[in-house]
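REVIEWER CHECKLIST
Item 1: Sequence provided? yes
Item 2: Single chain? yes
Item 3: Sequence as submitted:
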Amino acid sequence: MLVQNKGNHAYTANGLTLNPGTNKVDEKEFERFLTHPLMKHLESKGEFAYDSDKTRSSAKDTIAMIEDAFDIDMLEALKEEEDRKTVLDALDRRIEELKNPEE
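Item 4: Structure as written out by the authors:
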């Protein structure tokens, strides 16, 4: 599942670290992460945006997470799982931006 850490800091709890931006994590690990009192509080304040394996985010929400991602390997893996053209186009654009940043 994709989890967007909207904060400026990495958060670690119960064996899982969420870096700022979009992270690809196991759903059960994320559920365990949210059992930590601080993470539960941050989640209630909207610090994390996420979809789950059971529900599919809208293309708009998925694209927003892609635009906040910095891990090229994760983005490449998402391309293998995705079938929506707009999302695939966003993945290609983001990968290109990360591989060839403007100077």
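Item 5: Key structural point noted by reviewer: The chain has a mean pLDDT of 92.
Item 6: Recommendation: ____
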